[in-house]
């Protein structure tokens, strides 16, 4: 059995950054921008008024009067210059007319007809946003996962289309004679396929496209057929049939189809029978069937592989620290990812850790990580965890 770290490194070796595609800015949210975007203009493209008031020249003082000679609005420049003793009525966002050095806010003047007079104690700020104060033409935004604020910046830069990494298409294949889909009528010895729904949602939340393929029954022929349907995907994820039982056929069938195995079995709990490799050119991750095992392996391996394919780098899940709420015994030869709950800076593992308990998983907000052969831990000890 190899370590979790070694297994993850081999998973990263199986994947490569996907090619890019061009999308309209409107559809770029949560996509990974693959190449730097370049500002096509200054922002603001002109010195702009930050307030509603009057643009004046020089350094006026209380009691000074000006003739209002015109108006500048947002989108409507005043085409002329402001000289001594002159003012231009101006509104927020309007270009500051030539010659003006300051915008006096309208609250600070009295106006009679076309003449304004500066009140005592007027605000002395210029209320002018210099040209290019936000960014200059040619400024670049580095590749990143695009959040809503990034879209505003790209739009302001007049970037209408973005080059993003293609979404990884992930085939999800549940296997087993015992499985039926939610809403179907299970026989007494059957259960409902559940893991696939969590994994598909995880794939989609991470920026991929999940394809739920038909459940493969426990025959070599059916597994062959369903695995063959996944040939055009970027990643094949199977669920179940990974262990040592007579009906655990995934590895055998995949190998008969030419699977180049990267590893099988890791020192991890839950998730020991995890398998990975390359099947006819497509990276493949064989998850154990137990619901918690498959979903935990989804967090530890599937999502990092997807992030690597999206160009977000080859890194495992972020590991954080908390204080153990209660003592724990020594750990055995497999790293234990315990379902746990955080409360302030404390973390408490659930008492029941059976990898079939979906209810506990839904109550957990963290995986408490107990390393291989960790000695007993006391309440208050610092431990690692992965947020769920
Ligand atoms: N003799 C041994 N038996 C087992 C070992 C072992 O080392 N020696 N390992 C155990 C561990 S650990 C795990 S994990 C499981 C993994 O087995 P498989 O990957 O072969 O999974 P299955 O046997 O197909 O299923 C296990 C369990 O999960 C249920 N299942 C499967 N798929 C789904 C699904 N899509 N949705 C919901 N539930 C699913 C299935 O019905 C079984 O109950 O093996 C242990 N055995
Ligand atoms: O390793 Mo299995 O995934 O513990 O239940």
TrEMBL record:
CDD domains: MoeA (cd00887). Residues 171-308 form the MoaB/Mog domain. InterPro entries: MoaB/Mog-like_dom_sf (IPR036425), MoaB/Mog_dom (IPR001453), MoeA-like (IPR038987), MoeA_C_domain_IV (IPR005111), MoeA_C_domain_IV_sf (IPR036688), MoeA_linker/N (IPR005110), MoeA_linker/N_sf (IPR036135). Its EC number is 2.10.1.1. SMART domains: MoCF_biosynth. GO terms for biological process: Mo-molybdopterin cofactor biosynthetic process. One of its GO terms (molecular function) is molybdopterin molybdotransferase activity. Its cofactor is Mg(2+). This is Molybdopterin molybdenumtransferase. It comes from Paragemmobacter straminiformis.
């Amino acid at each position: 059995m190899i370590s979790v770290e070694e297994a993850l490194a081999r998973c990263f070796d199986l994947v490569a950054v996907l090619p890019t595609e061009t999308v309209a800015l409107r559809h770029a949210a949560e996509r990974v921008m693959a190449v730097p975007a370049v500002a096509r203009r200054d922002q603001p493209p002109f010195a702009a008024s930050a307030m509603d008031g009057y643009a004046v020249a020089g350094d006026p003082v209380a009691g000074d009067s000006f003739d209002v000679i015109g108006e500048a609005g947002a989108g409507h420049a005043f085409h002329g210059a402001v000289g001594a003793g002159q003012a231009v009525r101006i509104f927020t966002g309007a270009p500051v007319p030539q010659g003006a050095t300051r915008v006096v806010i309208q609250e600070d003047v009295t106006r009679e007809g076309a003449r304004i007079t500066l009140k005592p104690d007027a605000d002395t700020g210029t209320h002018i946003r210099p040209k290019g104060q936000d960014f200059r033409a040619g400024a670049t935004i580095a590749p990143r996962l695009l959040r809503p604020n990034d879209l505003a910046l790209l739009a302001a830069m007049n970037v209408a289309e973005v080059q993003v990494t293609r979404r990884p298409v992930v085939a999800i294949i549940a296997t087993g004679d015992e499985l039926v889909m939610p809403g179907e009528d299970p026989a007494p010895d059957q259960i409902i396929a559940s893991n696939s729904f969590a994994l598909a949602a995880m794939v989609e939340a991470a920026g991929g496209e999940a394809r739920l393929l038909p459940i493969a029954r426990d025959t070599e022929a059916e597994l062959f057929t369903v695995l063959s349907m996944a040939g055009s995907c970027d990643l094949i994820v199977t669920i179940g049939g990974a262990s040592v039982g007579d009906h655990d056929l995934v590895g055998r069938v995949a190998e008969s189809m030419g699977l180049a195995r990267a590893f099988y079995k890791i020192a991890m709990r839950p998730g020991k029978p995890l398998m990975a490799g390359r099947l006819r050119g497509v990276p493949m991750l064989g998850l154990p069937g137990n619901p918690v095992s498959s979903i935990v392996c989804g967090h530890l391996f599937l999502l990092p592989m997807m992030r690597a394919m999206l160009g977000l780098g080859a890194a495992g899940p972020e590991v954080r620290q908390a204080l153990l709420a209660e003592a724990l015994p020594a750990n055995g030869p497999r790293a234990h990812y315990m379902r746990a709950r955080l409360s302030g800076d404390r973390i408490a593992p659930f008492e029941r850790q059976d990898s079939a308990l979906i209810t506990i998983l839904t109550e957990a907000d963290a995986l408490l990580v107990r390393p291989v052969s960790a000695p007993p831990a006391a309440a208050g000890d610092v431990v690692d965890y992965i947020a769920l």
